Automatic annotation (TrEMBL):
<keyword id="KW-0862">Zinc</keyword>
<dbReference type="InterPro" id="IPR011615">
    <property type="entry name" value="p53_DNA-bd"/>
</dbReference>
<dbReference type="InterPro" id="IPR008967">
    <property type="entry name" value="p53-like_TF_DNA-bd_sf"/>
</dbReference>
<comment type="similarity">
    <text>Belongs to the p53 family.</text>
</comment>
<protein>
    <submittedName>
        <fullName>Tumor protein p73</fullName>
    </submittedName>
</protein>
<keyword id="KW-0238">DNA-binding</keyword>
<dbReference type="GO" id="GO:0006915">
    <property type="term" value="P:apoptotic process"/>
</dbReference>
<keyword id="KW-0010">Activator</keyword>
<keyword id="KW-0479">Metal-binding</keyword>
<feature type="binding site">
    <location>
        <position position="131"/>
    </location>
    <ligand>
        <name>Zn(2+)</name>
    </ligand>
</feature>
<keyword id="KW-0539">Nucleus</keyword>
<dbReference type="InterPro" id="IPR012346">
    <property type="entry name" value="p53/RUNT-type_TF_DNA-bd_sf"/>
</dbReference>
<keyword id="KW-0805">Transcription regulation</keyword>
<dbReference type="GO" id="GO:0046872">
    <property type="term" value="F:metal ion binding"/>
</dbReference>
<dbReference type="GO" id="GO:0000981">
    <property type="term" value="F:DNA-binding transcription factor activity, RNA polymerase II-specific"/>
</dbReference>
<keyword id="KW-0053">Apoptosis</keyword>
<keyword id="KW-0804">Transcription</keyword>
């Protein structure tokens, strides 16, 4: 998506009083990005982990060819991602858009870390005392969302917390693929390790990825183990 368009649209919203007198030639630009759903069934205490392609045939793909100096690795046998703290993991989202629809509705990808063992599954995955500290270098620019383990580099990503379950999630608006592409790539990072003391404490974690509409209705579901 064109950055300059984004900037233009964003700037239209920086005025302090939207109802103040406006010049005649002012163009009313629809709200963008669409408001992300804060909670969904994926943020409940016990969300379903079943793969569900849904009507958009939702798939996620990890392409290891661009990982360069191996900041991350994916094992197909284990369906498991190995990634260093703070490094970026590209996740490709593939959807089957319905061509008879004039425009797809606003769609979002929510990433929710979940403990994969039954004993711990109902507990939110929280950051360790060392890394959650606001002064930690890894939180520079993310002071408002220090409790979130999963981050997305998208400028429009939102970071809600479900107060019922204590789960911190990351919700990113999805745009349609660019011409000639059939996937959209979102960049994620994990700002604690599964070995963090007082945090995940070596408990295995999976990343639940849910395709959702603006109301938090789940339209597709996949997961990745870490
Ligand atoms: Zn940590």
């Amino acid at each position: 998506m064109c950055d300059s368009t984004h900037r233009h649209i964003t700037d239209a919203y920086t005025g302090e009083s939207p109802h103040a007198a406006q010049p005649d030639n002012m163009v009313i630009i629809p709200h963008y990005p669409p408001m992300a759903p804060s909670c969904s069934e994926a943020t409940m205490q016990y969300p379903s982990l079943n793969d569900y392609p849904g009507e958009y045939n939702f798939e996620i793909l990890l392409d290891g060819t661009g990982s360069g100096f191996k900041a991350w690795m994916y094992s197909y046998e284990l369906n498991k991602v190995f990634i260093d703290i703070g490094k970026v993991l590209p996740i490709q989202v593939k959807l089957l858009y319905k061509h008879d629809e004039p425009a797809p509705p606003p769609l979002f990808l929510r990433a929710t870390p979940i403990y994969s063992q039954d004993d711990h599954r109902g507990r939110p995955v929280e950051r360790c005392p060392l890394h959650v500290c606001r002064d930690n270098e890894i939180n520079k620019g993310f002071e408002a969302v220090v409790k979130h383990i999963v981050r997305c580099t998208s400028a429009h990503c939102q970071y809600p917390m479900d107060e019922r379950s204590g789960r911190h999630t990351c919700v990113t608006p999805l745009s349609p693929p660019q011409p000639g592409a059939d996937t959209v790539t979102l960049m994620y990072s994990f700002v604690c390790k599964t070995s963090c003391l007082g945090g995940m404490d070596r408990r295995p974690v999976l990343l639940l990825l849910t395709l959702e509409n603006q109301h938090g209705q789940i339209l597709g579901r996949r997961s990745l183990s870490k």
